[in-house]
């Protein structure tokens, strides 16, 4: 072993002493936690008896006793001059202070004689001398570690650190904090149901999830989640929660994160359908990959991008007359699948009629129509492009606009006189020159009215990064196809290609090469051609992200077939996939339970494509899986389904069923409905108190490290709901799991 110098030895001894002091602090804190837990349990057990004794005494006697108690307390404060410091805290300070006041390792600059001759301070008179044991059982000898003790203590502290860090955590990001109900309504920007869906996907699939909740929250150590429990209460909205918040006492006690969330148009069972769009199980994930080539393509194919857009924009519901949902000739899939969702529009900076900061920013913007009709696979496409010039207002203003119809012919084009004086024509980019603007009188307001008259109520606007164009027009539109998003040649969503690059690579055309600057007709025409080309080729055409995932999964599929090994379990031989990507497919415990009351009209077979087992009535209470052992599963008897659906009698029955089975499933979704008659003025307080009790009882059911999500799903007249999210901390004591033995 290498011989240490005197200086190195002094440093090592000092390090050992610091580590020993840290260990002593941890022991004291662990002891305090245990004592506090013991006191709280004893106080709760004695509270009922003490309250009954107090109630048996007369009121006058109680008042006199209270006065005596107050008097004695005030006299004690007067005698001492201040309240006495808690003993446990005072003794810890003494012990650690004793350690830091000793200077065995680091010689003092003062001479020993001066230290010995220093008068003893009265404040220090009560402190223990070095080598003496304090009332806490800590002495200087306890802080002296041998080499083996030092190594062991270092190992124990590292193990303790890992045990503390290796737990799932959920923290809000800026977008999530902006949706918090603690903010005023004008400062609040809600999140979407899609955000909650992404959180559930990350909780279930972990790192293999194609969608993450990074936009509004950060989920750490998702693989350590024990299970996920979701309670959906339809019929209650944000209005009910804020109006009767004092009746949500248990919900406020459990949840710190309470957020406003935009729900889909109210329809009984609609929320469960949206959450069901998540690949709920690993086997479901594998099947989607086989069918669509990648999980990302499956989600893009099956999503309803307009679900939340309909709640934000004034969109009429479906008409009584049947709408033609067939795909036009030349299209291989519905064009509605290329539309931006509300979540994408927020992320890309499109103007939206939302509250909070967005409302203040877009309050002067106009809708392209007063009322929109529902978009279909046959809704017309319109290519759009605008050019801007820099003005004295400090930004850019609209100076030219061009709109092209689906027949590739121009339908609208005009120059626009900005409100403010032009200071830079940006000719190399806009193609605008001073000579072109001499006789222009068309104003922005006139252009807005022209567009409102021109576009049909189900028009789909197509363009490259149309958010900039709509901001220049100061208008909002619900149906958008953005070529910078549907095409991707970089393999990364955040890195977008220029329109000229896309046109050259996919259309074989060279655009934006004129010395006179850009031509908006040329740009809008190129965007429209690119969109029509993608519609004719397929959803993953021109998208390196989706296409790359598809090819990678094809390689994985071939590889896993070669890597399958035969594993014998009892008398039966099972195939186990060795590849990590699909290793969790064979785990039968990764299952999902969906629980509703019989009053709710949810077609489980339709929602889950006939892949779920449905139990109703008595079967929901005593289903066959509840009495089936794991050995029977392994032997092939009564194999469990990936998704079990239970219909129970009433909401209370659904809560009881959830408490019984939630620990057996990776994901449990309980969907309840509050009938409108229960929200009448004479009954609403009792109804909300009952909902609060449901939340409390389910919280008791959630296991340690379990994710609990509560959604108030809104009403027909209010699309704003409430999302409450929390991970239950482990109930075990860290000191018990990883004690410090040195």
UniProtKB/TrEMBL annotation:
Gene Ontology MF terms = exonuclease activity; nucleic acid binding
Q: Which UniProt keywords apply?
A: Exonuclease, Hydrolase, Nuclease, Nucleus
What segment(s) does the record annotate as region Disordered?
24-139
| Any Gene Ontology CC annotation | nucleus
Give the Low complexity compositional bias ranges.
41-62
In this record, what's one Pfam family?
RNase_T
Lineage: superkingdom: Eukaryota
Q: Which SUPFAM superfamilies match?
A: Ribonuclease H-like
Q: What is its main location?
A: nucleus
- Family to which this protein belongs: Belongs to the REXO1/REXO3 family.
**Listed PANTHER family:** RNA EXONUCLEASE 5, RNA EXONUCLEASE REXO1 / RECO3 FAMILY MEMBER-RELATED
Protein name in UniProt:
Exonuclease domain-containing protein
Naturally occurring in which organism (per UniProt): Hermetia illucens (Black soldier fly)
- Give the lineage: Eukaryota, Metazoa, Ecdysozoa, Arthropoda, Hexapoda
């Amino acid at each position: 072993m290498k011989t240490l110098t005197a200086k190195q030895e002094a440093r090592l001894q000092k390090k050992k002493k610091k580590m020993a002091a840290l260990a002593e602090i941890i022991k004291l804190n662990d002891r305090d936690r245990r004592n506090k837990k013991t006191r709280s349990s004893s106080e709760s057990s004695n509270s009922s008896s003490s309250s009954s004794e107090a109630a048996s005494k007369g009121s006058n006697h109680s008042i006199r006793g209270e006065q005596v108690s107050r008097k004695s307390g005030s006299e004690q404060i007067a005698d001492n001059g201040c309240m006495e410091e808690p003993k446990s805290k005072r003794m810890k300070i003494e012990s650690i202070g004793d350690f830091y006041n000793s200077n065995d390792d680091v010689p003092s600059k003062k001479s020993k004689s001066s230290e010995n001759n220093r008068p003893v301070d009265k404040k220090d008179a009560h402190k223990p001398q070095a080598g003496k044991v304090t009332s806490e059982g800590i002495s200087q000898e306890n802080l002296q570690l041998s080499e083996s003790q030092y190594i062991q203590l270092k190992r124990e502290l590292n193990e303790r650190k890992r045990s503390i860090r290796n737990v799932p955590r959920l923290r809000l990001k800026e977008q999530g904090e902006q949706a918090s109900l603690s903010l005023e309504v004008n400062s609040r920007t809600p999140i979407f149901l899609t955000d909650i869906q992404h959180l559930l996907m990350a909780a279930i699939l972990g790192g293999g999830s194609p969608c993450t909740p990074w936009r509004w929250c950060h989920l750490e150590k998702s693989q350590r989640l024990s299970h996920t429990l979701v309670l959906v209460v339809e019929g209650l909205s944000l209005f009910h929660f804020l109006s009767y918040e004092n009746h949500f006492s248990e919900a406020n006690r459990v949840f710190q994160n309470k957020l406003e969330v935009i729900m889909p148009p109210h329809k009984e069972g609609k929320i469960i359908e949206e959450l069901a769009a998540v690949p709920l199980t690993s086997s479901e994930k594998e099947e989607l990959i086989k069918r669509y080539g990648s999980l990302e393509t499956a989600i893009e194919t099956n999503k309803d991008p307009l679900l939340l857009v309909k709640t934000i924009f004034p969109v009429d519901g479906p008409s009584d007359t049947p709408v033609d949902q067939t795909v036009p000739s030349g299209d291989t899939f519905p064009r509605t699948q290329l539309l931006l969702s509300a979540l994408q529009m927020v992320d890309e900076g499109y103007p939206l009629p939302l509250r909070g900061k967005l409302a203040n920013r877009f309050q002067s913007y106009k809708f392209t129509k007063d009322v929109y009709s529902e978009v279909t696979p046959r809704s017309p496409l319109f290519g759009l492009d605008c050019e801007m010039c820099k003005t004295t207002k400090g930004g850019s203003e609209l100076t030219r606009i061009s709109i092209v119809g689906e027949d590739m012919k121009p339908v609208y084009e005009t120059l626009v006189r900005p409100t403010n004086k032009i200071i830079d024509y940006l000719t190399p980019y806009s193609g605008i020159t001073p000579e072109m603007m001499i006789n222009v009188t068309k104003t922005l307001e006139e252009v807005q009215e022209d567009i409102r008259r021109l576009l049909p109520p189900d028009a789909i606007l197509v363009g490259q990064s149309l958010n900039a164009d709509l901001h220049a027009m100061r208008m909002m539109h619900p149906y958008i196809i953005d070529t910078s998003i549907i095409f991707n040649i970089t393999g990364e969503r955040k890195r977008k290609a220029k329109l000229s690059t896309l046109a050259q690579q996919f259309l074989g055309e060279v655009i934006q090469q004129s010395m006179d600057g850009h031509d908006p007709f040329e740009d809008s025409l190129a965007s429209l051609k690119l969109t029509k080309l993608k519609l004719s080729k397929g959803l993953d055409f021109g998208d390196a992200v989706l296409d790359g995932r598809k090819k990678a999964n094809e390689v994985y599929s071939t590889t896993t077939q070669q890597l399958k090994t035969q594993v014998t379990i009892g008398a039966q031989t099972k195939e186990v996939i060795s590849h990590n990507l699909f290793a969790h497919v064979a785990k039968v415990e990764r299952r999902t339970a969906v629980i509703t009351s019989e009053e709710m009209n949810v077609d489980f077979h339709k929602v889950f494509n006939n892949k779920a087992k449905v139990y109703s009535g008595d079967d929901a209470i005593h289903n066959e899986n509840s009495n089936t052992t794991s050995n029977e599963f392994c032997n092939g008897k009564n194999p469990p389904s990936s998704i079990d659906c239970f219909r129970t009698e009433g909401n209370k029955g659904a809560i009881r069923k959830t408490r019984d089975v939630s620990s057996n499933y990776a994901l449990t979704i309980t969907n309840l409905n509050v009938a409108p008659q229960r929200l009448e003025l004479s009954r609403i307080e009792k109804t909300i108190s009952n909902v609060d009790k449901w939340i409390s009882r389910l919280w008791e059911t959630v296991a340690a490290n379990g994710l609990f999500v509560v959604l108030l799903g809104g009403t027909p007249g209010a699309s704003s709901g409430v999302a409450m999210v929390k991970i239950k901390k482990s109930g075990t004591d860290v000191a018990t799991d990883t004690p410090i033995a040195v």
